[in-house]
Write a structure and sequence with these properties.
It is a single chain. About 75% of the residues lie in helices and about 0% in strands. It has four helices and no strands.
Length: about 130
């Protein structure tokens, strides 16, 4: 299996696309603040899933999935902030928040699945 076939990677990519669209609603003075930070965190999720997958060792894959989970939590925090500060209407952010929650559930499931595998096992499909 290739990482592009993983549902979690596909959903994380869709989430990143959603974040790019949502951040276009932010005021111009947030271009180098929240916009940049949210986009970076959103890109980090699928990038770390892919990078960890490509490392070829379960232990490294798990580490990169942890980084992806951290980036996702950072993104969820930023989403909460843009709603609380009324930079983005709640109804615009809500679908993105739901997508982030789904990616979180998928990441948690994959991390649980890999937890039982030895870090010496070759490859995430072992």
């Amino acid at each position: 299996m290739h990482y592009r076939q993983l549902l979690v990677w596909q959903r994380a990519m869709a989430l990143a696309e959603d974040v790019y669209r949502l951040t276009r609603l932010l005021p111009k003075d947030e271009r180098f603040g929240l916009m940049s930070q949210m986009r970076r965190a959103a890109r980090s999720v699928p990038a770390n899933i892919a990078e960890g997958y490509g490392r070829g060792r379960t232990g490294e894959y798990r580490r990169f999935l942890s980084i992806a989970a951290g980036s996702l939590l950072e993104l969820e925090t930023d989403l909460e902030l843009v709603v609380r500060t009324q930079l983005v209407p709640k109804h615009e952010a809500q679908p993105v928040r739901e997508a982030a929650a789904e990616v979180g559930r998928l990441l948690a499931g994959l991390r649980r699945r890999l937890k039982g595998l030895s870090s010496r096992t070759k490859g995430p499909d072992a």
